[in-house]
Amino acid sequence: MIAYNAGWLKNLAIRNESESAFHEQCILKEELDAVYKKYQVGFYTPNIFIAVGLFILTLIILLLSFGLFALLFMSASEKSYSYLAIVFAVACYAVLEIMISKKRHYQSGVDTGLLWVASLALFAGISFLNDFGDIANGILVFMISLAGLIRYADRLLAVCMYFSFLSVLFFSCIQLGTTAKALVPFVIMIVSLAICFFIMQYKSRENIFQYKNCLTLIEISSLISLYAAGNYFIVSELSIEMFNLQLQPGETIPFGWIYWIFTILVPPVYLLFGIRKKNMILIRTGLILLAAIVFTIRYYHTILPVEYVMSIAGIIILPAAYLLLKRLQDPVYGFTSKEVISKSEIDKLQLESLLLAQTFKPGIDQDATKFGGGSFGGGGASADY
Amino acid sequence: MTWSYFTLYLITIFMMDNNTSEKLFSEGLVSEASFKRIKLAAAAGIVSVFWEIKLLLYLGVLLLSGGLGILVYKHINTIGHNVILIFLILVTAGCFAYCFRFKKPFSVSKVDAPNVFFDYLLLLACLLFLTIIAYLQFQYNFFGNRFGLAGFIPMTVLFLAAYYFDHIGILCMAITNLAAWMGITVTPFEILKENDFNSTAVILTGLVLGVLLILIGLLSNKINFKKHFQFTYTNFGMHILFICCIAAMFQFEQFYFLWFLLQLGIAIYFYIRAKTERSFYFLLVLSLYTYFSLGFVVIRLLALFNWNDLGPVYLGLIYFIGSGIGLVLFLIRSNKKIKNL
Lengths: 385, 341
Hints:
With 385 residues, chain A is mainly α. Chain A is 70% helix and 1% strand. Chain B has 341 residues and is an all-alpha fold. In chain B, helix 2 (18-26) packs antiparallel against helix 3 (32-44), helix 4 runs parallel beside helix 6 (116-140) and helix 6 (116-140) packs antiparallel against helix 7 (147-165). Chain B contains 13 helices and one strand.
């Protein structure tokens, strides 16, 4: 089953839980140390920055190696590249297995990079070799990511698996006829809802704890696909794109009002349920989707110029956030605005200040780009002159 | 990878579940008092929405400052724009007033914000202040043709605000403004000079700026004046220096090796600092830049020979793969070294 040492994964989970219990001042430092001593973890997991570096380098090495082999075995037939890709993928999986079992890598960047490249190469190789259509491609992605998910518990593969499953469903449905085409959004919504409930029910089971994060991501994906399948913009764009629906200006898609109801109603429902059940996943997804409502409405009805919308939104959001902050000083209904300190403070501080450096680009940047395009833009007010 | 960490943040709500706490308790790792505390916390089930509120505040500030900024420009030459300008000034003044009223006393060391809201109001105030200054110059030619002054004043205000209220975000804005200001005082010469001199001026200014920022960082640490700003200064300075060196390698082709040596020197300097400050971030940045510039040098060397076939391409690929593996090993070893310091 899972490639990583299951005992260590369990110990790591216990360590993480104890760490957060310590930060919530439930257990003492000595107790935390005792837990760390008892529950050993032998993984090689470097610091996050090093992991990012290792990930980038792994990608570079693998891509260039593929290029080198492609040059060495240059041939006239295109099929040979497909075979090369498949062989390359197998080699990547082999190296990945060695890295995990011998070098004990776990979320080190190296294993993630190898896994993603291997999955991609395998898919590309098989798909090109056979000239697969939509459904076959979907099934292929589903199988590759399902296998990768079970063996390596990778979160990106979990998301790929879920959406490839939906795409298979989608393409199969639209081949069944006109009625089926019209019902596709509802089929997807029902399936998303079913998967979401199923995961919420079972993801905390003890025997699948390694996959908890992956399952949570599938849960988020299903919440998003549930909304997307009922979103007016997505349904109408897909109808125009996929089914050659011809719309006259001012005309709406059939049963457009149903989709408008879904578009506007679903995110508040998520939020409401999230608050009632104290489910942060529902709350966060709901918050993000609130923005989707605004974008959808604005795409079809330009009620106000964008700068007014921005200003008004700012004027509403700021006091609302302030009120929340003040009201939740003491927990209300189980929610608090107080910070729960997380794991590594120094890393977080550095990360936060890096993010700040990235996000603040007052004005249009003109000058810093001349240095050769760095990761930050200069500019400021003076760029307006 | 960033994606991974982002999703990890999105989904990790660690909570000790009952099984774990009971297990730890029965093994004697956790005392009865602690066990009860865990049970109580789990029963209360308090959820923190701290980061959600912070995100909302940030979003609100960005939307409001951005929206008002566009509004002002769109309504130039109409009656409305004076109203908007006055509104802008009032909001800015109000935000600053709030900050002055509630700020904690100044100290040379880190001062925590009195509350979360404070940080974002200050941010809003500074962003709007920049809009006002830019607008004054645009509409009324407030600073005349003294472009240096027009860049200098907001920069100074930003630096003062960053130090006075102890805000790293504002400091980042101030530093980008400083770069722009130095860029601006250089760029008017560009029009008069040859094309290649332009970049030379920019590159040299960048080098000066980078060294300056790193020195300020060192100084703040040394004289113990807002020590925690050091990382921000050094981070900016480091990137600027590395980028300038690499730009110079392209710009001054005949001397590219000298610039490479300079780049290598800077990398060694930061390697030493990474070890003393135990900074994995410095280590990552210096490795990636050096990998890039070393690759540039190797390609140049390979191009020296007159090849008739694909030989240099093979050699180049093999070099990049080999050095990539070497760098992976280097990072893994340095990671261990820094960890064990």
